[in-house]
Amino acid sequence: MKEYMKRNAVLLVLLAAAVAVSAAVIAGRWRVEAGNKQYDILIDYNEVELMAEQSGRDVSWWLEQFRDMGLTRVALTEETLASLMENSPLPVTATVMDAVLQDADWAESYPAAFVSAIEAYGYDRFDVLVEVFGREAAGFVVDAVERRFHSEDLVVLDQGEEAYILINSTVDDALYERDEGYYTTAGKSFSSRSVLSASKLMYVSLGLMPEKVERIQSLGLEVAPRTICYNNFNDARYTQAVIEGYERFGITPAYIIAGGESIVGYGGGEEILLDYIRDNGITVGLIETNVQRENLMQAGVDAVIEAADYNTVRVFSMWDYVQYRYGYYGYEGTEEIVNTLFRAIVERNIRVIYFKPFKQTDDSHVYITDPQVYREALESLNTRLAAHGITLGRASVMENYQVPALAMLALGLGAGLGGALLPDTFLPMKRKWTLLLAGAAGLCVGAAWLVMPNSFKLLASFAGAVVFACLAAAFFLRAAKGVGERLRPDAGLLRILPRAAGILLAAVLISLAGAMMTAAPLSSTDFMLELGIFRGVKLAQLLPLAFFCLLFVSYYGVFEKDRRENSLQVRDIVTALRWNIPVWALVLLGAVALAGYYYLARTGHETEVSVSTLEILLRNDLENWLLARPRTKEFLVAFPCVMLAVYSAVRRLPFWTALFGLAGTIGMTSVCNTFMHIRTPLYLGFVRTGYAVLLGLALGAVYMACFEALLRLYRAVRKKYFETEQR
User: Fold this and answer.
1) How far is 528 from 25, CA to CA, in rounded Å?
2) pLDDT, tens digit, for every residue of 611-663?
3) pLDDT tens digits along 562-590
4) What is the DSSP letter of 350?
């Protein structure tokens, strides 16, 4: 190891300088994250209304309860033709003309003046015909429609107590039901047709219901309006009408959270919206997807966010599966719901919770209607968040932080230099060849930095993760072999243990340097908001494992006990190809392959491979006991296995050195992987790794003692029975 460092001293110094640059970039990001310590909760009015129906209490009573719990904002979705028909006492009917025309006498059902007007205007089956009865309903709908749609797209007959409206719609806005099938008496398909049943126009926001706004504001709560927008109905006129609707009620929204197909104004009203956002200090909300990765990106959201200088927060919507987690995993109440919200806020930079009432786990229609349940859940959440310095209030916004271009170049050069150092870990490289390789890597990195700056940051981050995990694996395997050469095979555990612990600590430090090199290129606000994400997580986990296998063959050949070389030989490849693999090895390799598949397949939230309930409960307990939950695979498996690899090297057990070393390499990749999740605050990554090292050291000592006992038992049994029989 000393010879390697002496031979590559210049490159190692340059690599250390690149790591120092990553630390400086990380420090800037740390400062930004440290100021992002306030979260908010928006109460979903519509779901509270549904819960109130089941509770015997009215909506105002429930809103008052939530207000007393410290919640101050209520998310109120603007009405649509569809919502007015389904969830409103107002007598409103909206129908596509295709359905109206099914009745041959349809014209007799409408005033002659209206029929004459729409016949003169011209209509087709995609248009929407609206009937409104009652002065209140007619006033609301006619005013909303005339403010949002152009006069050339409307035919309106307003008779005071009733109104009739035809709104021009197109085939692009048509909504169809599933095909209706026709079958013969023999059960064979005869024909089918698509049924035109609605139009997107029926889901376009028409404004806030005055009664609901008054109810919320009378309780001293703030209305957080939700406007649902669809393409073709989202121009400057529509945008202006939406803003005027807010102002009519004295509403200045803290957040604008897009819904439908696009953000308000994406269709000609972009500048109107941006001026409104800037003039009023409004924050744009990004809703996280239901797989807890990236955000729902409606059309125009990214452009608005960039133009607003990233005055943006991430929003966690309580999807149905979260609402159903009452009494989940054997808990008595809301423990798992609180766990879910806690992780969203602490680990994923969520700063707004779109709150929906809880539901029974085994019945998706029955709400939990005990206010004390909600009070205790919020108290528990806020108590746990306080340990991280996070408090309830208006959501804080991260400042727009970007990695300087020259720092980005230095990070890329560092990854390139690290890659140039890798061949010397398993090949008999002379210094001049390593330097030439480093020079070529530097030229390639510089060219990439100039030609493809956007992709460069992703490539630099990926290269940093892979290269440093490989360097860490090379270090601990070579160090393990060195300890094995210096100590006798029968050395006591007390002599092996401190060396194994030191090797583990040094390997983790190398991986942590790689973690910073991984995180630094992507430490800009857009990545912290998950507008961009790290790509190639699984590949970054696999490549170091393959590299370890190459290293092991270079250092140990095919399980040679007394090998002296530390470089790959031609005979190693020949021996590996000619190796007669015993059946027990095949079985063990199959088990390792299955474990590897499980390890990779359960990465992320999109996979169908789920984590066991027992492990989830263990994770939950660790979250409650510690500031940050250490990664299970690190402290239970990988870190102790690095120590076991050192132990096996001393005991001259090359097969077990390989097996434990492979598992230990997973830990090196895992440290880098922790920092690939750019949305997760940096302090959590460092604390999490620190806990994992401490627990891993303790368990490593226990595992070594257990393995020593098993090895002695095995040797005693073999000596007593097998060697006796051979005599």
Assistant:
1) 14
2) 777 888 888 888 889 899 999 899 999 999 999 999 999 999 998 999 999 99
3) 667 777 666 666 666 666 667 666 676 67
4) E
Q: Where are the beta strands (DSSP E) in 558-700?
A: none
What is the widest separation between alpha-carbon atoms in the chain?
115
Q: Rounded to 5 degrees, what are φ and ψ at 286?
A: -110, 120
Flag whether pLDDT at 179 surpasses 70. Answer: no
Residues whose CB falls within 8 Å of the CB of residue 246, separated by 6 or more in sequence, listed in order: 208, 225, 252, 253
Q: What are phi and psi of 101, to 5 degrees?
A: -70, -10
DSSP H/E element including 25: helix 9-34
CA dihedral 527→533→534→538, nearest 10 degrees, is 150
CA 51 to chain centre: 30
Single-letter amino acid, residue 26: I
On the question of pLDDT at 460 being above 70, the answer is yes
Q: How far apart are CA 497 and CA 493, in angstroms?
A: 6
The secondary element (H helix, E strand) that includes residue 137 is helix 135-148
- Tell me the pTM: 0.88
Give the integer Cα–Cα distance in Å for 346 and 616: 17
Q: What are phi and psi of 56, to 5 degrees?
A: 80, 5
E-strand stretches of 143-230: 154-158, 162-167, 174-183, 189-199, 222-226, 228-229
CB 15 within 8 A of CB 421: yes
Query: What is the end-to-end Cα distance of the chain in Å, rounded?
Result: 44
- Whether 655 and 560 have beta carbons less than 8 Å apart is answered as no
- Answer yes or no: are the C-beta atoms of 449 and 460 closer than 8 Å: no
Collapsing DSSP to helix, strand or coil, 657 comes out as helix
Got the DSSP string for 518-545?
Answer: HHGGG-SHHHHTTSS----HHHHHHHHH
Laid out side by side, the sheet with 128-133 consists of: 92-96, 128-133, 162-167, 154-158
Quote the tokens at residue 466.
Answer: 């892979």
Q: Tell me the C-alpha distance between 723 and 599, whole Å.
A: 40
Going by C-alpha positions, the residue among 126, 154, 125 that lies closest to residue 141 is: 154
SS3 readout for 408-424: HHHHHHHHHHHHHHCHH
Which of 429, 426, 464 has the alpha carbon at shortest distance from 445? 464
